[in-house]
Protein backbone atom coordinates (compact mmCIF):
# COMPACT_ATOMS: atom_id res chain seq x y z
CA UNK A 1 0.00 0.00 0.00
CA UNK A 2 2.85 2.40 0.87
CA UNK A 3 4.51 1.58 -2.45
CA UNK A 4 1.32 2.44 -4.32
CA UNK A 5 1.05 5.73 -2.45
CA UNK A 6 4.67 6.54 -3.28
CA UNK A 7 4.14 5.82 -6.97
CA UNK A 8 0.96 7.88 -6.92
CA UNK A 9 2.69 10.85 -5.32
CA UNK A 10 5.64 10.61 -7.73
CA UNK A 11 3.34 10.58 -10.75
CA UNK A 12 1.26 13.35 -9.28
CA UNK A 13 4.31 15.56 -8.71
CA UNK A 14 5.57 14.85 -12.22
CA UNK A 15 2.25 15.84 -13.75
CA UNK A 16 2.04 18.92 -11.52
CA UNK A 17 5.52 20.12 -12.50
CA UNK A 18 4.80 19.44 -16.18
CA UNK A 19 1.54 21.37 -15.92
CA UNK A 20 3.25 24.31 -14.24
CA UNK A 21 6.00 24.38 -16.87
CA UNK A 22 3.50 24.24 -19.72
CA UNK A 23 1.41 26.94 -18.07
CA UNK A 24 4.46 29.16 -17.64
CA UNK A 25 5.48 28.61 -21.25
CA UNK A 26 1.95 29.32 -22.44
CA UNK A 27 1.85 32.46 -20.32
CA UNK A 28 5.13 33.71 -21.81
CA UNK A 29 3.88 33.06 -25.34
CA UNK A 30 0.68 34.92 -24.54
CA UNK A 31 2.58 37.94 -23.24
CA UNK A 32 4.81 38.01 -26.32
CA UNK A 33 1.83 37.62 -28.65
CA UNK A 34 -0.13 40.42 -26.99
CA UNK A 35 2.85 42.76 -27.12
CA UNK A 36 3.73 41.95 -30.74
CA UNK A 37 0.12 42.07 -31.93
CA UNK A 38 -0.30 45.49 -30.37
CA UNK A 39 2.89 46.77 -31.98
CA UNK A 40 2.19 45.36 -35.43
CA UNK A 41 -1.40 46.64 -35.45
CA UNK A 42 -0.29 50.22 -34.79
CA UNK A 43 -0.60 52.86 -37.50
CA UNK A 44 3.17 52.72 -38.08
CA UNK A 45 2.84 49.30 -39.75
CA UNK A 46 -0.40 50.06 -41.58
CA UNK A 47 1.04 50.67 -45.05
CA UNK A 48 3.97 48.29 -45.01
CA UNK A 49 4.31 44.52 -45.20
CA UNK A 50 5.75 42.71 -42.17
CA UNK A 51 6.48 39.06 -41.46
CA UNK A 52 7.72 37.54 -38.21
CA UNK A 53 8.65 34.09 -36.97
CA UNK A 54 10.22 33.23 -33.61
CA UNK A 55 10.92 29.69 -32.42
CA UNK A 56 12.66 28.05 -29.47
CA UNK A 57 16.00 26.70 -30.73
CA UNK A 58 15.82 23.64 -28.46
CA UNK A 59 12.16 22.60 -28.52
CA UNK A 60 11.33 24.08 -31.97
CA UNK A 61 8.11 25.46 -30.47
CA UNK A 62 6.70 28.47 -32.30
CA UNK A 63 6.65 31.47 -29.98
CA UNK A 64 5.20 33.96 -32.45
CA UNK A 65 4.25 33.99 -36.12
CA UNK A 66 2.76 36.57 -38.43
CA UNK A 67 2.85 36.33 -42.24
CA UNK A 68 5.73 33.90 -41.82
CA UNK A 69 4.80 31.96 -44.96
CA UNK A 70 4.69 35.06 -47.18
CA UNK A 71 7.50 36.14 -49.50
CA UNK A 72 9.65 39.19 -48.79
CA UNK A 73 12.61 40.93 -50.42
CA UNK A 74 15.36 39.85 -48.00
CA UNK A 75 18.17 42.27 -48.96
CA UNK A 76 21.36 41.12 -47.21
CA UNK A 77 19.51 38.45 -45.23
CA UNK A 78 20.29 36.51 -48.40
CA UNK A 79 23.82 36.13 -47.03
CA UNK A 80 22.44 33.70 -44.44
CA UNK A 81 21.72 31.29 -47.30
CA UNK A 82 25.14 32.00 -48.81
CA UNK A 83 26.80 31.24 -45.47
CA UNK A 84 24.89 27.95 -45.27
CA UNK A 85 25.94 27.04 -48.82
CA UNK A 86 29.59 27.81 -48.07
CA UNK A 87 29.63 25.84 -44.82
CA UNK A 88 28.06 22.87 -46.60
CA UNK A 89 30.49 22.82 -49.54
CA UNK A 90 33.82 24.50 -48.75
CA UNK A 91 36.84 23.18 -46.84
CA UNK A 92 38.35 24.97 -43.86
CA UNK A 93 40.94 26.58 -46.15
CA UNK A 94 39.68 28.30 -49.31
CA UNK A 95 41.06 27.00 -52.64
CA UNK A 96 43.24 29.86 -53.95
CA UNK A 97 44.16 28.66 -57.45
CA UNK A 98 44.22 25.42 -59.44
CA UNK A 99 47.20 24.56 -61.63
CA UNK A 100 48.97 22.05 -63.87
CA UNK A 101 52.70 22.17 -64.51
CA UNK A 102 54.01 20.78 -67.79
CA UNK A 103 57.25 21.39 -69.69
CA UNK A 104 58.38 23.99 -67.14
CA UNK A 105 55.19 26.02 -67.71
CA UNK A 106 52.67 26.56 -64.91
CA UNK A 107 49.12 26.80 -66.21
CA UNK A 108 46.82 28.20 -63.56
CA UNK A 109 43.18 29.22 -63.20
CA UNK A 110 41.25 31.15 -60.61
CA UNK A 111 38.92 29.56 -58.09
CA UNK A 112 37.05 32.85 -57.52
CA UNK A 113 38.78 33.16 -54.12
CA UNK A 114 37.97 36.74 -53.04
CA UNK A 115 40.82 36.98 -50.51
CA UNK A 116 43.67 37.28 -53.07
CA UNK A 117 45.32 40.55 -51.96
CA UNK A 118 41.92 41.71 -50.71
CA UNK A 119 42.38 45.18 -49.15
CA UNK A 120 41.19 43.95 -45.74
CA UNK A 121 41.98 40.22 -45.81
CA UNK A 122 45.34 40.65 -47.59
CA UNK A 123 45.92 36.98 -48.44
CA UNK A 124 49.09 36.59 -50.51
CA UNK A 125 49.23 32.79 -50.76
CA UNK A 126 48.63 32.70 -54.51
CA UNK A 127 50.93 35.65 -55.19
CA UNK A 128 53.83 34.03 -53.32
CA UNK A 129 53.26 30.76 -55.16
CA UNK A 130 53.22 32.44 -58.60
CA UNK A 131 56.32 34.49 -57.80
CA UNK A 132 58.30 31.28 -57.45
CA UNK A 133 57.36 30.03 -60.94
CA UNK A 134 59.34 30.84 -64.08
CA UNK A 135 56.78 30.57 -66.87
CA UNK A 136 53.15 31.42 -66.17
CA UNK A 137 50.04 30.98 -68.29
CA UNK A 138 46.64 32.18 -67.04
CA UNK A 139 43.60 30.14 -68.15
CA UNK A 140 40.23 31.86 -67.73
CA UNK A 141 37.66 29.63 -69.42
CA UNK A 142 36.21 28.25 -66.16
CA UNK A 143 34.26 31.45 -65.39
CA UNK A 144 30.77 30.80 -66.76
CA UNK A 145 28.78 33.52 -65.02
CA UNK A 146 27.86 37.18 -65.46
CA UNK A 147 29.87 40.01 -63.95
CA UNK A 148 26.76 41.38 -62.23
CA UNK A 149 23.82 39.60 -60.63
CA UNK A 150 20.31 39.71 -62.12
CA UNK A 151 18.37 42.76 -61.07
CA UNK A 152 21.36 44.75 -59.82
CA UNK A 153 21.06 48.50 -60.32
CA UNK A 154 23.05 49.52 -63.41
CA UNK A 155 24.21 52.84 -61.87
CA UNK A 156 25.88 51.11 -58.90
CA UNK A 157 28.91 50.27 -61.08
CA UNK A 158 31.00 52.97 -59.35
CA UNK A 159 30.30 51.97 -55.75
CA UNK A 160 32.39 49.57 -53.67
CA UNK A 161 29.40 47.37 -52.80
CA UNK A 162 28.85 46.46 -56.45
CA UNK A 163 32.23 45.11 -57.55
CA UNK A 164 32.27 42.77 -60.55
CA UNK A 165 32.50 39.02 -60.11
CA UNK A 166 35.43 37.21 -61.73
CA UNK A 167 37.45 33.98 -61.78
CA UNK A 168 40.63 35.44 -60.32
CA UNK A 169 39.68 38.56 -58.38
CA UNK A 170 42.59 40.74 -57.29
CA UNK A 171 42.39 43.31 -54.51
CA UNK A 172 38.66 42.71 -54.17
CA UNK A 173 38.24 43.98 -57.76
CA UNK A 174 38.34 47.56 -56.45
CA UNK A 175 40.82 50.42 -56.74
CA UNK A 176 41.75 51.94 -53.38
CA UNK A 177 42.76 55.60 -53.58
CA UNK A 178 43.91 57.81 -50.70
CA UNK A 179 46.49 60.47 -49.77
CA UNK A 180 49.53 59.82 -47.59
CA UNK A 181 50.36 62.73 -48.25
CA UNK A 182 50.73 61.98 -51.98
CA UNK A 183 48.11 60.08 -53.88
CA UNK A 184 48.35 56.33 -53.24
CA UNK A 185 46.64 53.91 -55.65
CA UNK A 186 46.23 50.16 -55.15
CA UNK A 187 46.60 47.98 -57.14
CA UNK A 188 49.52 50.11 -58.42
CA UNK A 189 48.72 49.04 -61.99
CA UNK A 190 45.95 51.68 -61.99
CA UNK A 191 48.17 54.53 -60.75
CA UNK A 192 48.13 56.35 -64.09
CA UNK A 193 44.38 55.76 -64.49
CA UNK A 194 43.39 57.92 -61.51
CA UNK A 195 42.88 61.63 -62.08
CA UNK A 196 42.97 63.90 -59.06
CA UNK A 197 39.99 66.07 -59.92
CA UNK A 198 36.38 66.66 -58.96
CA UNK A 199 33.97 64.70 -61.12
CA UNK A 200 30.31 63.68 -60.95
CA UNK A 201 31.33 60.01 -60.84
CA UNK A 202 34.07 57.96 -59.22
CA UNK A 203 34.77 56.17 -62.51
CA UNK A 204 33.81 56.31 -66.15
CA UNK A 205 30.97 53.92 -66.86
CA UNK A 206 32.69 52.08 -69.71
CA UNK A 207 36.40 52.44 -68.95
CA UNK A 208 38.89 52.18 -66.11
CA UNK A 209 39.30 55.93 -65.70
CA UNK A 210 38.97 56.96 -62.05
CA UNK A 211 38.54 60.28 -60.27
CA UNK A 212 39.64 61.35 -56.81
CA UNK A 213 38.49 64.78 -55.54
CA UNK A 214 41.45 66.96 -54.44
CA UNK A 215 39.64 67.91 -51.23
CA UNK A 216 38.83 64.33 -50.21
CA UNK A 217 40.44 63.13 -46.99
CA UNK A 218 39.44 59.48 -46.68
CA UNK A 219 39.88 56.36 -48.82
CA UNK A 220 37.83 55.90 -51.97
CA UNK A 221 37.03 52.33 -53.05
CA UNK A 222 35.92 52.08 -56.67
CA UNK A 223 35.26 48.86 -58.63
CA UNK A 224 37.28 48.41 -61.79
CA UNK A 225 36.10 46.78 -65.02
CA UNK A 226 37.43 43.23 -65.11
CA UNK A 227 38.65 41.25 -68.12
CA UNK A 228 41.15 38.50 -68.81
CA UNK A 229 43.56 41.07 -70.22
CA UNK A 230 43.19 43.34 -67.18
CA UNK A 231 43.82 40.40 -64.84
CA UNK A 232 46.95 39.48 -66.76
CA UNK A 233 48.21 43.07 -66.75
CA UNK A 234 47.69 43.46 -62.99
CA UNK A 235 49.50 40.16 -62.38
CA UNK A 236 52.42 41.18 -64.60
CA UNK A 237 52.67 44.45 -62.69
CA UNK A 238 52.62 42.66 -59.34
CA UNK A 239 54.99 39.84 -60.33
CA UNK A 240 57.31 41.87 -62.57
CA UNK A 241 57.21 39.11 -65.16
CA UNK A 242 55.26 38.18 -68.27
CA UNK A 243 52.08 36.13 -67.96
CA UNK A 244 50.60 34.31 -70.94
CA UNK A 245 46.94 33.56 -71.59
CA UNK A 246 45.48 30.27 -72.83
CA UNK A 247 41.93 29.23 -73.63
CA UNK A 248 42.10 25.79 -72.00
CA UNK A 249 44.08 23.93 -69.38
CA UNK A 250 46.31 21.08 -70.60
CA UNK A 251 45.05 17.57 -69.87
CA UNK A 252 45.93 16.09 -66.52
CA UNK A 253 45.01 16.24 -62.87
CA UNK A 254 44.93 19.77 -61.47
CA UNK A 255 46.70 20.65 -58.27
CA UNK A 256 45.00 22.94 -55.76
CA UNK A 257 46.70 25.61 -53.70
CA UNK A 258 44.77 26.42 -50.52
CA UNK A 259 44.86 29.88 -49.02
CA UNK A 260 42.92 31.85 -46.45
CA UNK A 261 40.94 30.48 -43.53
CA UNK A 262 37.31 30.17 -44.58
CA UNK A 263 35.94 31.66 -41.35
CA UNK A 264 37.83 34.90 -42.00
CA UNK A 265 35.74 35.28 -45.17
CA UNK A 266 32.50 34.33 -43.44
CA UNK A 267 33.08 36.87 -40.65
CA UNK A 268 33.89 39.63 -43.13
CA UNK A 269 30.84 38.78 -45.24
CA UNK A 270 28.44 38.73 -42.28
CA UNK A 271 29.90 41.50 -40.09
CA UNK A 272 30.49 44.05 -42.85
CA UNK A 273 27.76 42.73 -45.15
CA UNK A 274 30.41 42.38 -47.85
CA UNK A 275 28.56 41.79 -51.13
CA UNK A 276 31.66 40.93 -53.13
CA UNK A 277 32.75 38.14 -50.78
CA UNK A 278 29.21 36.75 -50.76
CA UNK A 279 29.07 36.56 -54.54
CA UNK A 280 32.54 35.06 -54.85
CA UNK A 281 31.84 32.40 -52.21
CA UNK A 282 29.01 31.01 -54.34
CA UNK A 283 31.46 30.86 -57.25
CA UNK A 284 34.13 29.14 -55.13
CA UNK A 285 31.54 26.61 -54.02
CA UNK A 286 30.48 25.91 -57.61
CA UNK A 287 34.12 25.30 -58.51
CA UNK A 288 34.35 22.73 -55.72
CA UNK A 289 31.11 21.08 -56.78
CA UNK A 290 31.56 21.10 -60.56
CA UNK A 291 34.92 22.65 -61.59
CA UNK A 292 32.92 25.48 -63.24
CA UNK A 293 32.49 28.94 -61.71
CA UNK A 294 28.80 29.75 -61.80
CA UNK A 295 26.79 30.87 -58.76
CA UNK A 296 23.54 29.37 -60.02
CA UNK A 297 25.09 25.91 -59.91
CA UNK A 298 25.67 26.34 -56.18
CA UNK A 299 22.23 27.80 -55.49
CA UNK A 300 20.51 25.02 -57.42
CA UNK A 301 22.55 22.33 -55.68
CA UNK A 302 21.76 23.68 -52.21
CA UNK A 303 18.04 24.10 -52.89
CA UNK A 304 17.69 20.70 -54.54
CA UNK A 305 19.70 18.76 -51.98
CA UNK A 306 20.41 20.44 -48.65
CA UNK A 307 17.22 22.57 -48.52
CA UNK A 308 14.76 20.48 -50.49
CA UNK A 309 12.36 20.32 -47.53
CA UNK A 310 11.77 24.07 -47.19
CA UNK A 311 8.03 24.69 -46.83
CA UNK A 312 8.13 27.46 -49.43
CA UNK A 313 10.50 27.38 -52.39
CA UNK A 314 12.50 30.63 -52.33
CA UNK A 315 13.58 32.65 -55.32
CA UNK A 316 17.33 32.91 -54.81
CA UNK A 317 19.16 34.78 -57.57
CA UNK A 318 22.42 36.09 -56.05
CA UNK A 319 24.73 35.64 -53.10
CA UNK A 320 24.62 39.11 -51.61
CA UNK A 321 20.99 40.24 -51.67
CA UNK A 322 21.65 43.21 -53.93
CA UNK A 323 18.88 42.03 -56.23
CA UNK A 324 15.23 42.77 -55.53
CA UNK A 325 14.42 39.59 -57.47
CA UNK A 326 15.26 37.53 -54.36
CA UNK A 327 12.19 36.31 -52.47
CA UNK A 328 12.33 34.48 -49.13
CA UNK A 329 9.86 33.87 -46.32
CA UNK A 330 10.54 34.22 -42.58
CA UNK A 331 10.01 30.45 -42.42
CA UNK A 332 12.80 30.02 -44.98
CA UNK A 333 15.14 32.14 -42.88
CA UNK A 334 14.34 30.43 -39.58
CA UNK A 335 14.69 26.99 -41.16
CA UNK A 336 18.20 27.72 -42.42
CA UNK A 337 19.18 29.44 -39.16
CA UNK A 338 17.95 26.35 -37.31
CA UNK A 339 20.09 24.09 -39.51
CA UNK A 340 23.10 26.35 -38.99
CA UNK A 341 22.54 26.12 -35.23
CA UNK A 342 22.82 22.32 -35.48
CA UNK A 343 25.67 22.37 -38.00
CA UNK A 344 28.08 24.73 -36.21
CA UNK A 345 29.00 25.13 -32.55
CA UNK A 346 27.24 28.03 -30.87
CA UNK A 347 30.52 29.79 -30.07
CA UNK A 348 31.70 29.66 -33.66
CA UNK A 349 28.31 30.52 -35.13
CA UNK A 350 27.79 33.54 -32.90
CA UNK A 351 31.29 34.80 -33.75
CA UNK A 352 30.41 34.70 -37.46
CA UNK A 353 27.20 36.69 -36.96
CA UNK A 354 27.34 40.37 -35.93
CA UNK A 355 26.70 40.84 -32.20
CA UNK A 356 24.26 43.54 -31.12
CA UNK A 357 26.02 46.58 -29.67
CA UNK A 358 29.42 45.04 -30.28
CA UNK A 359 30.38 44.20 -33.87
CA UNK A 360 29.74 44.68 -37.55
CA UNK A 361 26.53 46.21 -38.84
CA UNK A 362 24.91 45.79 -35.40
CA UNK A 363 27.64 47.61 -33.51
CA UNK A 364 25.43 50.61 -32.76
CA UNK A 365 22.15 48.71 -32.40
CA UNK A 366 20.46 46.03 -30.28
CA UNK A 367 22.93 46.28 -27.40
CA UNK A 368 22.51 44.20 -24.28
CA UNK A 369 22.80 45.57 -20.74
CA UNK A 370 26.09 43.83 -19.97
CA UNK A 371 26.72 41.54 -22.95
CA UNK A 372 25.23 40.94 -26.41
CA UNK A 373 21.89 39.17 -26.57
CA UNK A 374 21.30 39.42 -30.34
CA UNK A 375 23.46 37.70 -32.98
CA UNK A 376 21.89 38.40 -36.33
CA UNK A 377 22.23 39.52 -39.95
CA UNK A 378 20.56 42.71 -41.03
CA UNK A 379 19.45 43.43 -44.56
CA UNK A 380 18.50 46.80 -45.95
CA UNK A 381 17.53 48.24 -49.30
CA UNK A 382 15.55 51.42 -49.76
CA UNK A 383 12.12 50.87 -48.15
CA UNK A 384 13.11 47.43 -46.84
CA UNK A 385 14.70 46.28 -43.58
CA UNK A 386 15.09 42.70 -42.34
CA UNK A 387 16.83 41.15 -39.34
CA UNK A 388 17.21 37.41 -38.82
CA UNK A 389 19.30 35.46 -36.36
CA UNK A 390 19.53 34.37 -32.74
CA UNK A 391 18.46 35.90 -29.43
CA UNK A 392 19.51 34.83 -25.93
CA UNK A 393 16.63 35.45 -23.53
CA UNK A 394 17.12 36.32 -19.88
CA UNK A 395 16.15 32.75 -19.05
CA UNK A 396 19.14 31.52 -21.03
CA UNK A 397 17.01 30.06 -23.79
CA UNK A 398 18.18 30.61 -27.36
CA UNK A 399 15.48 31.82 -29.75
CA UNK A 400 15.69 31.84 -33.54
CA UNK A 401 13.91 34.73 -35.23
CA UNK A 402 13.25 36.45 -38.52
CA UNK A 403 11.69 39.91 -38.84
CA UNK A 404 11.13 40.98 -42.45
CA UNK A 405 9.79 44.44 -43.27
CA UNK A 406 9.11 45.57 -46.84
CA UNK A 407 7.68 48.63 -48.57
CA UNK A 408 7.80 51.17 -45.74
CA UNK A 409 8.24 54.89 -46.37
CA UNK A 410 9.23 55.82 -42.82
CA UNK A 411 12.86 56.15 -41.83
CA UNK A 412 14.88 52.95 -41.46
CA UNK A 413 16.02 54.26 -38.08
CA UNK A 414 12.47 54.27 -36.76
CA UNK A 415 11.91 50.80 -38.20
CA UNK A 416 14.94 49.54 -36.28
CA UNK A 417 13.83 51.29 -33.08
CA UNK A 418 10.49 49.50 -33.08
CA UNK A 419 12.12 46.19 -33.90
CA UNK A 420 14.52 46.68 -31.01
CA UNK A 421 11.57 47.16 -28.66
CA UNK A 422 10.13 43.82 -29.78
CA UNK A 423 13.46 42.05 -29.37
CA UNK A 424 13.78 43.45 -25.87
CA UNK A 425 10.29 42.14 -25.10
CA UNK A 426 11.40 38.69 -26.26
CA UNK A 427 14.56 38.86 -24.18
CA UNK A 428 12.83 40.02 -21.00
CA UNK A 429 9.70 37.85 -21.29
CA UNK A 430 10.98 34.52 -22.50
Automatic annotation (TrEMBL):
* Presence of keyword Flavoprotein: no
Key words, A-Z: Carboxypeptidase, Hydrolase, Protease
Alphabetized Pfam families for the sequence: Peptidase_S13 (PF02113)
Tell me its family: Belongs to the peptidase S13 family.
- Read off the InterPro entries from this record: Beta-lactam/transpept-like (IPR012338), Peptidase_S13 (IPR000667)
The record's annotation in PANTHER family points to: D-ALANYL-D-ALANINE CARBOXYPEPTIDASE, PENICILLIN-SENSITIVE CARBOXYPEPTIDASE A
Q: Which GO MF terms does the UniProt record name?
A: serine-type carboxypeptidase activity
Q: What is this protein called?
A: D-alanyl-D-alanine carboxypeptidase/D-alanyl-D-alanine-endopeptidase (Penicillin-binding protein 4)
